[in-house]
Design brief:
The chain is of the alpha/beta class. It has helices at about 20-25, 35-45, 65-75, 85-90, 110-115, 125-140, 180-185, 210-225, 255-265, 280, 315-320, 410-415; strands at about 5, 10-15, 15, 30-35, 55-60, 75-80, 100, 120-125, 145-150, 175, 190-195, 235, 270-275, 285-295, 300-305, 325, 335-340, 350-360, 365-370, 390-395, 400-405. It binds ligand LLP.
Length: about 425
């Protein structure tokens, strides 16, 4: 459920009519709903009720500080994957002891940054990384709390580009080698082993792969404890999928996921962390765009809009489906038409949808891409010298620009010209 609904004939974000925002900030733009963000965070939080737990929002999904602050004020921790994300979380007021650091390629500089600023734990992904973390911590005279990310070799049954838990993926250490790697970690004086980490992929629409992975984590917990490791925290990653269409079968709910975690891991008495990104922000955001032209091709009509692949890369990159709806509510009886929906960027990959059946819209009208809150703005670029589009946050009847659109001048002035030119 989200808070983007038609009311009085136009799409509203909570209590604000979307055309009013478009008139103020121009198109295209990203628009987020505070109520939806909070609702989704609380669904996870409540799903783990009764267990010692922390929901660490995977901020790679949408990292605007206003979003981070909204979630942090509700009690969220953060899952970060770079020095930039770490500093952004800190700037948004998230304390270090609520930040977990994931990622396969943490540099010594990033590690230092997090050890200086405070960190809940590092999720270590390889032995070489472990050595660097140990050396850095020892040099600073501190101890780094760690979990080790294990790769459980489980098929997440999602798009190949976002599956991470198979042995051929670059992530984690093979679970079959966990014993020797934990033994190495225990021997390093700069590290304190506190738990196990696992993350098998994104946009999972079935609980079965999670269950398979968590069974393996439960078994490993018992074995490692028997070997003397004090395993007291399990980071279970993110990955629960969201509905992108209104007709398909909805993925399991956070409550189903939480109940499964309790069933599989509750008996271990560990503190539980989860790292959801998409489910918290995906359906809490839309992208609003204006139709520039309706062009009749030989055998199809193109809806040419002012948003493009540089603004929302998911359809081009993952063949992702996004529901695209008119901002003015169509008459219920209106005859649907078929469009290829495309942006102005100069490549055919700049296609959001082919033969999409939808109500007719004309040049100058607004359309909204639903489910665009996650991996939308954060993956945008200035390809074709199109300035990054603004982000706007709604809270009840108020809205605020949380990242302004750069002017052409600002964009162009970032280039610097060498003296020999
Ligand atoms: N934790 C780790 C270690 C991750 O790598 C990810 C996502 C998450 C948590 C959050 O997963 P989520 O709950 O959002 O599924 N750009 C792609 C998705 C990439 C996901 C990367 N890792 C897309 O647009 O579908």
């Amino acid at each position: 459920m989200d808070h983007f609904l038609y009311r009085d004939g136009v799409l509203h974000a909570e209590d604000v009519p979307v055309p009013e925002i478009a008139a103020t900030v121009g198109t295209p733009f990203y628009l987020y709903s505070t109520a939806t963000l909070l609702r989704h965070f609380r669904l996870f939080d409540e799903a783990l009720d009764g267990m010692d737990h922390l929901v660490c929002y995977a901020m790679k999904a949408a990292s605007n500080q206003a979003i981070l602050k909204t979630l942090a004020q509700a009690g969220a921790g953060m899952d970060v994957v770079s020095g930039g994300e770490y500093l952004r979380a800190k700037a948004a007021g998230v304390p270090g002891d609520k930040i977990v650091f994931s990622g396969v390629g943490k540099t010594a500089a990033e590690i230092r940054l997090a050890l200086e600023g405070g960190i809940r734990q590092f999720n270590v992904e390889s032995e070489p990384e472990m050595e660097v973390l140990n050396a850095t911590a020892l040099a600073m005279g501190v101890t780094a709390p760690i979990t080790i990310r294990v790769n459980p070799d489980v098929d997440a049954k999602t798009h190949a580009k976002i599956a991470t838990g198979k042995s051929e993926n670059k992530f984690g250490i093979p679970i079959s080698r966990a014993h020797e790697v934990y033994a190495l970690a225990a021997s390093l004086k700069g590290l304190e082993v506190i738990g196990i980490d696992v993350h098998i992929g994104s946009q999972l629409t079935d609980l079965a792969p999670f269950e398979a992975a968590y069974d393996k984590v439960a078994e490993l917990t018992g074995q490692l404890r028997a070997q003397g490791h004090n395993i007291r925290r399990l980071d279970l990653g993110g990955g629960l999928g969201i509905p992108y269409t209104r007709d398909n079968q909805a993925p399991p709910l956070p409550s189903d996921y939480g109940a499964m975690i309790k069933r599989k891991l509750g008996h271990l008495g560990c503190e539980i962390e989860i790292e959801p990104g998409r489910l918290i922000v995906g359906n809490a955001g839309i992208m609003v765009s204006e139709v520039i032209y309706v062009k009749s091709g030989e055998d199809r009509d193109f809806l040419i809009i002012d948003g493009a692949m540089n603004d929302l890369i998911r359809p081009a990159m993952y063949e992702a489906y996004h529901d695209i709806i008119p901002v003015v509510e169509p008459d219920p009886g209106i005859e649907q038409v078929k469009f290829d929906i495309v942006g102005p960027v100069c490549e055919s990959g700049d296609t959001f949808a082919r033969a999409r059946v939808m109500p007719p819209v004309a040049a100058g009208e607004l359309v909204a891409f639903r489910s665009a809150g996650a991996y939308g703005a954060v993956m945008s670029s200035e390809y074709n010298s199109r300035p990054l589009i603004p982000e706007v946050l709604v809270h009840e009847d108020q809205f605020a620009v949380i990242r302004p659109r750069p002017t052409f001048d600002e964009m162009i002035k970032r280039d610097t010209i060498p003296t020999w030119l």
